[in-house]
Amino acid sequence: MSAGFKVLSLTDRAADRIKAIMAEADRPIAGLRVGVRNGGCAGMSYTMEYAEAVKPGEDVVEDRGVRVFVDPKAVLFLLGTEMDFTTNKLASQFVFNNPNQTSACGCGESVAITPVSADRLPAQV
């Protein structure tokens, strides 16, 4: 999807937290891999893991000094998403502000996401 569409962006807080986590890794890390998987009461959940290298077909997003690899199966679900990191009295967590998300479960562990269709593709950047 390298036609100029921005798949994912990071806030300063998210980038700073990712850099801190990667600095503490026990092995060399090339970036963070982000995706979605089926599961949970709302149907899908976001996934994140260390990435030692880019996999074939992945989009590579470089934002605020961080490399994020986007699973090719997740691109249409994540297109236009902003990844943030929030802290409150009870939790510190990454938050996905996803314009394609249609609902979320009460526990906050899973979401319903509608993939972007050709008629809803954003303008090229």
Automatic annotation (TrEMBL):
Which organism does this record belong to? Methylobacterium oryzae
Q: Which Pfam families does UniProt cross-reference here?
A: Fe-S_biosyn
> Superkingdom of the source?
Bacteria
Q: Read off the InterPro entries from this record.
A: ATAP, ATAP_core_dom, Fe-S_cluster_asmbl/transfer, HesB-like_dom_sf
Family from the record: Belongs to the HesB/IscA family.
Q: Where is the Core domain?
A: 8-109
What's the protein called, per UniProt? Answer: Fe-S cluster assembly scaffold SufA
